[in-house]
Design goal:
disordered C terminus; 475 residues; alpha+beta; extended; 5-stranded antiparallel sheet; cytoplasm; single chain; cell cycle
């Protein structure tokens, strides 16, 4: 077999392959056997039909077609290995010549990983938010905890902001009561904004037994988006009473004996959260700077597939769970379809660039992933997916996604190398030490190439597809 590689552009090549006919012998034998097993010819036992009879009855062309389809993956793979190509996805194969007894010639166009020059990243400098926990932050945190321990007591007075009212609702559109527009004994906190627009004004000032009517645009249900006439009746008014901020509250709401200990713990937790956010911010900004430094050609087919995958995941998974379709989502976001498409393309390009650059860094720095690192990453992914580690691990193995997870961990380690070399300062001018934030780094990579695992899929699962080239016979 002879093969030659022609570079069409930095991300695509054309292979030209010539195969002597004798190298098709095994595939021809397999083709005759397959046809033998599928057909019957009078006078011959099943499976014992001579090749000349198959040629006469069904045509030599049918046998050759079967043999070529069987042989193409093998010859294509040999040509890829001979050319030392890092291919992505399935090739487009054209059979140029098929001379019975002489020669098989075909071409295969396929995307390849571009050659990337890793830039000098040691000079990267970024600024991040400082970790400042104010007294106001602590007070807000304690107040939120206090809200959770609030009690309600019925009162004999008009409802006011902050009260909890028990109400019955009935919505009409064009004078007709909606089937899904009736609700009873609904508890609502005035001022929370959790129900219909206009309800706060309607119920404020009403006592138990009071009624009011208001007009509001429905946010869901069969008449979503339509204006409805809503009748509301208050059956109870209750005041919310917050516990006193004292040591008794601290003992009731936490494991601490004093309010000061509770506040100190809140300050520490808020500081840890802000440090985590700071680390994530630093890694994202370092990654953005790295992407600016590197020239990364993007394979067109890979980009097209990534954009389709992102759109599919949004429309059929994320929006479906929220009961939305794409037009409604765009309306809520205040975006046109053109703006959405452009934004999706930018995200896809960033995801593919991120993967290519970090994969190249993994190779350059010779980074490996050990079992402990993979297990820790699997545990985090399982937690974020809402599955148990055992369930998630089983799904990963059955789906053949272990290489994908290994790639995520390796890319996280590669980004950690870049972050460690970068100069990170906060808005107070203090140098930020991120050496102990490897977990956050892995999650940053996962988020920035997130749905990039579609790109990952095209890139890392290409090997599984490469033995199934699609042939087009120009003759």
């Amino acid at each position: 077999m002879k093969s030659a590689v022609e570079t069409l552009n930095p991300t695509r090549v054309r292979l030209t392959v010539e195969v002597p006919f004798e190298e098709l012998k095994d595939s021809l034998d397999a083709a005759y056997k397959k046809i033998n097993d599928q057909v019957t010819v009078k006078g011959f036992r099943k499976g014992k039909i001579p090749a000349r009879v198959i040629d006469q009855r069904f045509g030599r062309g049918a046998v050759l077609e079967e043999a070529v389809n069987d042989a193409l993956p093998k010859f294509y793979t040999e040509a890829v290995n001979e050319g030392e190509l890092n291919v992505l996805g399935q090739p487009e194969v054209d059979i140029k010549e098929l001379k019975d007894g002489e020669l098989l010639s075909f071409t295969a166009e396929v995307d390849i990983r571009p050659v990337i020059e890793i830039p000098d990243y040691t000079g990267i400098e970024v600024t991040v938010d400082a970790v400042d926990v104010s007294d106001e932050d602590v007070d807000k945190s304690v107040d939120e905890l206090r809200e959770r321990f609030a009690s309600t007591n019925p009162v004999e007075r008009a409802a006011a902001e902050g009260d909890v009212v028990t109400i019955d609702l009935e919505a009409k559109v064009d004078g007709e009561v909606l089937e899904d527009g009736v609700a009873s004994d609904v508890q609502y906190t005035i001022g929370s904004g959790e129900l219909l627009e206009g309800i706060d004004e309607a119920v404020t000032g009403l006592e138990a037994g009071g009624e009011a009517t208001f007009t509001s645009q429905l946010k869901g249900g069969t008449a979503e988006g339509k204006d409805a006439e809503v009748s509301v009746k208050v059956s109870q008014v209750a005041s919310r009473e917050l516990p006193d901020l004292d040591d008794d509250f601290a003992q009731m709401a936490s494991e601490f004996d004093t309010l000061e200990e509770l506040k100190a713990d809140s300050r520490k937790r808020l500081g840890n959260m802000k440090q985590y956010d700071q680390a994530t911010q630093a890694q994202e900004r370092v990654l953005d700077e790295l992407l600016k430094l590197a020239e990364v050609p993007i394979p067109e087919k890979l980009l097209e597939d990534e954009i389709k995958t992102r759109k599919h995941n949004l429309e059929h998974h994320q929006l479906g769970q929220m009961g939305l379709d794409l037009p409604k989502y765009l309306e809520i976001q205040g975006k046109t379809e053109e703006e959405f498409d452009e934004e999706t393309k930018e995200q896809a390009v960033k995801g593919i660039k991120t993967q290519f650059i970090l994969d190249e860094l993994v190779n350059k720095e010779k980074l490996n992933v050990n079992q402990e690192e993979l297990t820790e990453h699997l545990m985090r992914r399982a937690q974020s997916s809402g599955m148990s580690p055992d369930q998630f691990a089983q799904a990963v193995v059955e789906g053949g996604q272990v290489p994908m997870l290994v790639g995520e961990v390796a890319r996280g380690k590669a980004l950690a190398v870049v972050v460690e070399a970068a100069k990170v300062t906060d808005t107070n001018g203090e140098v930020v030490d991120l050496q102990d934030d490897e977990d956050e780094t892995a999650e940053t990579v996962e988020a920035s190439s997130d749905d990039t695992e579609a790109a990952s899929g095209a890139a890392t699962e290409a090997a599984a597809d490469d033995d199934k080239p699609e042939a087009k016979n120009e003759g």
